[in-house]
C-alpha cells in the first residue's frame, strides 16, 4: 500500500504565517543560545547566574545569561531544582491513591492535571462517567483555568512594575479558591475528581455562589484591561518583545496560549473535544504577533471565554439535581457509606478497594487535555494490576521553557523577565 | 492513514483508539523525518521511555502472576486473570506525534531497546526533542546518538544511576562500608 503525500494539506490551522524570516531557533542545541564569535573574546561580556532563587523566575528556574551591556547575547536554562520524583512515586501507589499526585505536579492548574490522569485511567478501564460529573468537571477545570491565568496576570504584571495589578488579580483568585473550598473542602489540591466521577455530590449552596462569581468576573476583567491595556509603560514593555513565529512555535512543540499567541488556531477543547466541550459554545482567541503582549491578550480573552463556559455549565448543572455524580460500579468505586452497616457485599467491596485497590486492564494510553498552559498529556502503562507500571506526564511548562532561548533574540535583560513571565511556566510542572 | 511506508516499519497495532507503530530503532530518525514531511505530523508532543524489567514478574508493583504461571497461594492472585503479554526487549521509547488538522491525528512510534543500546536522536527533525531526550537519558538511561548536548537535565550532573529504572532503589543512601570490611 502506498501513502498519498499529504503535503498539499492547507496551511490550516496557521492564521498568519511567520512573523519573521527563517528560524531563530539556536543551533546546534535548540535550547542554548551561544554568544556570537565576535563577542567570545570581548572582556565586557559578563556571565550572570539568574536564579534559581529569584522572585521573577516563578519558582526555581535558573538561567545562565551572557550580558553585553544590557543585551542578552547568550542563554542557557537549567532546570531540575524542584524535581520530586512524582513519576517514580506513583508507580508504588495503587491507582486510586495516585490521584492526589498529579495535582501537586502543576500546583497552579491543579484540577486540569488531576483530570488528565483520571481520564487516562478511565480510558484504560473503559468507564463512562455520569453526565453530572462530566459537566461539573468542565466547570471546575474552567475555574481552574481562570485561577491559573489570574496568577499569571498578577505575577507577570508585578514583575514589570504594575504592582496594583497583583492585588486585583489575587482578589478574584480568592473568590475561586473559596468556591473550591466550598465544593471540596480544600482550597488547592482538591482531589475532587475520582475515577468514575466525582468524590462527593455538589453542595447545595454552590450554584448561587458560583453564579455570583460568573456575574462579577466580566467587570473585573474590564478593570484589568483598564489598568493594563491603556498603560503606556505596560505596552512599551510587552509589545514586540520575545517574538516567536508560528513555525518556530510548532517546531519547539509549543501548545496552549503560547501557540495561539503565535497565530496558530489550535485548542484541544475544540479540536479534540473531551468532557462536554463539544456541547458548549465558546471562542478560541488567536493573536498573530507572537510577542509578550499577545500572550497576555490570549490569556485575558481566555478568562472571558472560561467565564462563559462556567456560566453554561452552571445552567446545565442546576437542572441535574439528584442525578448520580459517580458511576455505580462497585469494582472501582467505593460503596456509599451508609450501606456498610447493612450490606456484607458493600463491606467486602469497600475493604477490597481500600486495601488492595482496583485492577486496571493491561495496556498503554496517552490522554491529552488543554490545561491552562497547553497540552497536558498523561502516558500510562498498566500491567493489569492494582498499581501503574509507568506514569509519565507531558508537561506544557517543560516545553514552554525550551522556547526561552529562541525568544531572547536581541533582547535586553529587563525584557528577559517579561519573556520568562509570559511563557507562564510552573516549575513544579517542569521538573515533576 | 497507513504507516507501512515509514522507514523501518515493523508492526502497526490499534488499542484503546490509539495507533502504535513499531519502528526499528536504527531508523527512527528517518521515520520521524518521513512522518513530518510526508505524513504531515508537524509536532512532536512527547518522548517517553518505559522500563519493562521484570514485567509480569513477582513482587513488583501490580503483580498478578509470573511468566512461569500463577501462584494461587499468593495473596491477591485469583488465578483467573490473563498473564501480561511479554515484551521483546527491556526498554521501549515512545514518540507521540501530532498532526495539526481537523480532526487531529495522533500516532505513537515505538522502539524497543536493550540496556545500553543507542538510538538515533531526532533533535535535527524537531528541536523540541532536545529536552525530552535529555530527560529520558537522565531518568531512564537511554542513549540518544547524535544529540548535540546529551547531559543530565533533571538530576545533578554528578548523579549516579537512572532513577526511573525499575532496578533503582526507592530510598536509602549509599554507605561506604559493608559486612566484609
What does this protein look like?
The complex is a heterodimer of chains A (432) and B (181). The radius of gyration of chain A is 23 Å and the shape is globular. In chain A, the strands form three sheets. In chain A, strands 1-4-3-2 form a four-stranded antiparallel beta sheet. Chain A has a three-stranded antiparallel beta sheet with strand order 7-8-9. In chain A, α6 packs antiparallel against α7 (163-184) and α6 (131-159) runs antiparallel to α17. In chain A, a hairpin with a 5-residue loop joins β8 and β9 (388-394). Chain A has helices spanning 37-40, 86-90, 95-98, 100-105, 110-125, 131-159, 163-184, 206-228, 232-238, 246-251, 257-261, 268-271, 292-318, 344-355, 396-402, 404-407, 413-423, 427-431; strands at residues 32-33, 45-50, 62-68, 71-78, 193-194, 197-198, 363-371, 374-382, 388-394. Helices cover 46% and strands 12% of the residues of chain A. The longest helix of chain A has 29 residues, at 131-159. Chain B contains two helices and seven strands. With 181 residues, chain B is of the alpha/beta class. The radius of gyration of chain B is 19 Å and the shape is globular. The relative contact order of chain B is 0.18. In chain B, β4 (91-99) and β5 form a beta hairpin. The chains are: A alpha+beta (432), B alpha/beta (181). At the A-B interface, β7, β8, β9 and α15 of A face β3 and α2 of B.
Which structural traits does this protein have?
heterodimer, A: 432 residues, alpha+beta, 4-stranded antiparallel beta sheet, 3-stranded antiparallel beta sheet, 46% helix, globular, disordered N terminus, B: 181 residues, alpha/beta, 5-stranded mixed beta sheet, two-stranded parallel ribbon, 2 helices, 7 strands, 12% helix
